[in-house]
Design a protein that fits this description.
Blueprint: H1 3-67, H2 76-88, E1 92-99, E2 102-106, E3 109-110, E4 122-123, E5 129-134, E6 144-149, E7 152-156, E8 171-176, E9 181-185, H3 190-197, E10 202-205, E11 208-214, E12 218-225, H4 230-263, H5 265-274, E13 278-287, E14 293-303, E15 309-310, H6 312-322, H7 325-346, E16 351-356, H8 358-363, H9 366-374, E17 384-389, H10 396-409, E18 412-418, H11 425-429, E19 435-438, H12 440-443, H13 455-465, E20 469-473, H14 478-486, E21 491-493, H15 503-514
Parallel strand pairs: 14-16, 16-17, 17-18, 18-19, 19-20, 20-21
Antiparallel strand pairs: 1-2, 1-7, 2-3, 4-5, 5-6, 6-7, 8-9, 8-12, 10-11, 11-12, 13-14, 13-21, 14-15
Helix pairs in contact: 1-4, 4-5, 7-9
The protein binds ligand C2E.
């Protein structure tokens, strides 16, 4: 991802990070206020059910008691007993006795009209037949509920069933299980109540919050307009918004921190390593006398997602400092095998020199990595040269054991950029090296009168004394090449022959350089 995309993504994430938690808290405060209100409404509805059960229980008890009366029906005693039970039973308005399906007497006395027994709407489990709404004969006024047991019935004012205290604005309705409205407080709309009891036990119906409670025989609905909970929502918001603001600040902070980290050179390099954004270019190494291609140096490049290539000297120092270099070395090894397996198997005289970091040299951890990478490829270990700069040999003892082990495995070991560090002849003598690369800065002085121009023959002489092969690096002119040939330097690498190139070009270069003239 390039910088501008990272910045755009960070801004979008920061905006989302600011909006989402606050919006979530606003939503949560609404949900919590609704839940709280549902609980409260549920409580009212349950109380109505409990009240209805008590009222029915009282009426049932009165019916059972009158049923126990053994005297003559509709006698003065019977009527007095019925009256007494009516007065003592809070929910009961009137009690009556039926014979042959007609009302014969009631708690008010003998009846003359031919009042027929009502058809019950339902019968409870304890045998009480309930008619939800009926017009009383004796008392004018609103509809009453009739409960009948055997030949007696009681009339109950349905208001007794919803005789509970509710907050102003809370509508309460009690219905039968079949939806017949028995009693109501604060004027609920019967059609809405019918709709509500057919659905879930709590919820929101347009502008109404509701909760229902179901008892045996009854359903109670408590409802109130949504606007009633606005205060509660505001209170919840006061509690939750600071939390949302804190979360938003935290997320924005994280986004800023992550994007800064992502935008930092190290952050970018870490991602490049993780995404394996590296490729390898190969710079041919030629035999100076013949111009034959004898191999190449593998030179890593960081291919950015936008396709641009970053030179290694711009990221290798940071990779070394941060320890990412070992992962990069591993990727280079894998790429070399992937790119050049066929060429190396087909032509055993070709070698590829891989650059090792100081860590790779001091720990030797790279050797098993190479061994594993070469397994089942057919590439010979001697076709892989290992190049290390003088910095890799600072800890001479560990460097020596790595060099020894590398050579045991069959690799050639080359000292790179020779002459730019502090290596001395005696220092080099202690290391079983195979080749020495003369740094470009010395090659540049060839045929010039600079102060360092006299160093180059010394380096050549030193390498010969140590019986090391010599590779001259950075050969740019024919004069330099001629000089090197004259001084018996076998190999050269530089723009005079070829620049670093992608694998396919290197393969073609090698074939053409080796083709018979
Ligand atoms: N002006 C000029 N330059 C020439 C000429 N011939 C070769 N060069 C450049 O000199 C460098 C030679 O590689 P080096 O000394 O190992 O120096 C390398 C090496 O120390 C390091 N490097 C490259 N690849 C790797 C790698 O895979 N691992 C590690 N640890 N270091 C690497 O980065 C350094 C720079 O690599 P590059 O930028 O590819 O630069 C390469 C190459 O492109 C020439 O005739 N003229």
């Amino acid at each position: 991802m390039d910088r501008s995309r990272i910045i755009v993504t960070a801004v979008v994430l920061a905006l989302l990070g600011a909006i989402v938690p606050i919006a979530a808290m606003v939503h949560l405060s609404w949900i919590q206020a609704v839940q709280k209100e549902h609980k409260r409404l549920q409580l009212f509805a349950s109380r109505a059910i409990a009240r209805a059960d008590i009222s029915r229980g009282d009426a049932t008890a009165a019916l059972l008691q009158i049923d126990q009366f053994t005297g003559i029906r509709c006698s003065a005693d019977h009527i007095a007993r019925m009256r007494q039970l009516t007065i003592n039973t809070r929910s009961t308005e009137e009690m009556g006795y039926f014979e042959n399906g007609l009302l014969k007497c009631s708690s008010w006395g003998l009846t003359e009209g031919r009042v027929a027994q009502t058809v019950p709407d339902f019968t409870t489990r304890d045998g009480i037949a309930v008619t939800a709404r009926m017009q009383p004969v004796m008392s004018e006024g609103h509809l009453l509920m009739a409960l009948r047991y055997k030949d007696h019935n009681v009339l109950v004012d349905p208001v007794r069933f919803v005789d509970v205290i509710v907050d102003p604005g809370v509508q309460l309705a009690l219905t039968t299980e079949t939806g017949i409205l028995l009693g109501a407080l604060n004027g609920p709309d019967p059609a809405r109540i019918e709709k509500i009891i057919a659905g879930p036990d709590e919820g929101i119906d347009d502008d109404l919050l509701f909760a229902t409670a179901r008892g045996t025989g009854w359903i109670a609905v408590a409802a109130e307009p949504k606007s009633q909970i606005l205060d509660s929502v505001r209170q919840q918001r006061l509690l939750l918004l600071p939390l949302g603001a804190f979360m938003a600040a935290f997320i924005i902070g994280m986004v800023v921190w992550l994007s800064r980290r992502r935008l930092s050179p190290l952050g970018e390099l870490q991602i490049a390593v993780r995404k394996r954004e590296f490729i390898v270019h190969y710079q041919p190494i030629v035999e100076l006398r013949t111009g034959n291609c004898i191999g190449a140096e593998a030179l890593v490049r960081w291919k950015r997602p936008n396709g641009s290539l970053v030179r290694p000297d711009l990221f290798i120092p940071l990779a070394e400092e941060s320890g990412l270099i070992t992962a990069i070395t591993d990727q280079v090894i894998a790429l070399v095998v992937f790119d050049l397996n066929r060429l190396l198997v087909a032509d055993r005289s070709i070698h590829i020199a891989i650059n090792l970091s100081a860590t790779d040299v001091s720990t030797a951890r790279v050797l098993p990595v190479i061994e594993k990478a070469l397994q089942h490829t057919g590439i010979e270990p001697q076709q892989i040269w290992l190049e290390a700069t003088e910095r890799g040999f600072v800890d001479i003892n560990s460097a020596r054991s790595t060099v020894v082990r590398a050579r045991e495995l069959g690799h050639a070991v080359v000292i790179d950029d020779f002459g730019t560090g502090y290596s001395s002849l005696s220092y080099l003598e202690g290391l079983p090296l195979d080749a020495l690369k003369i740094d470009k800065s010395f090659i540049d002085t060839i045929s010039t009168n600079s102060a360092t121009s006299s160093v180059t023959p010394h380096i050549i002489g030193m390498a010969k004394t140590l019986k090391l092969k010599i590779v001259a690096e950075g050969v740019e002119t024919q004069a330099q090449a001629d000089y090197l040939v004259e001084h018996d330097v076998e190999y050269g690498q530089g723009w005079l022959f070829a620049r670093p190139m992608p694998a396919a070009e290197f393969i073609a270069y090698c074939r053409q350089a080796k083709a018979p003239a």
